[in-house]
Amino acid sequence: MSSRLARELTGVPPEVQSRLERAGLRRTLATRAVLGLFLTRPRSRLTHAQAQAALTARGLDLNRVTLYRLLDRLAVCGVLRREADEQRIWRFSLAPTGDTLAETDGAGPRFECDTCHRRFELSDAGEPTRAVTRDLFEALARLGHQGRRLDVSIHGTCASCVTPNDLAEGIA
């Protein structure tokens, strides 16, 4: 393992540690490397192939099947989110923890860039948006269901990906 990768693996948040422990996941080199990848890029939404390429670029040659299984296990235990994009390709991102979870509760609206696939939480959403979220969860509870999260996404192009042509044409 490269020294750069080893430095990036330090500082795993306590909430992530406890989720791993509750799930019984061992802290193998592969687990630590994948965690390091997402902890150093908290807004990234990576496909299996992108995660594999990033790990390879960091000096870790991880078996493709091992990576697929590990990403799925990290999603099941709540460390990562697994969501399909518009092309039905699975993308993984760091799940909210601690203060981030309190801010968004997993239910806040977000903006997703269709170019770079980064996600931006819109933490300053107004009270009407929060009220709709509460109403939906309460309606589910009255029916005996237990809602866990509500996904509200606005898709477009982020400020980093907008080109001058997009601005001139008013597309952005």
If you compute it from the alpha carbons, what radius of gyration comes out, rounded to the nearest whole angstrom? 18 Å
Here the CATH topology of the largest domain equals Arc Repressor Mutant, subunit A
Please work out how many helical segments DSSP would assign: 8
Low-confidence spans: 1-9, 99-106
Largest sheet: number of strands, sense, barrel closure: 3 strands, mixed
So, CATH architecture of the largest domain?
Orthogonal Bundle
Distance between the termini: 42 Å
The helix content, as a percent range, equals 40-55%
Q: What is the spatial order of strands in the main beta sheet?
A: 4-3-5
How many strands? 5
Number of domains: 2
Report the CATH superfamily of the largest domain.
Answer: Winged helix-like DNA-binding domain superfamily/Winged helix DNA-binding domain
Give the ordered list of helices and strands: HHHHHEEHEEHEH
Strand portion: 5-15%
Mean pLDDT: 79
Shape: globular
Structural class based on helices, strands and sheet pairing? alpha+beta
**CATH class designation of the largest domain:** Mainly Alpha
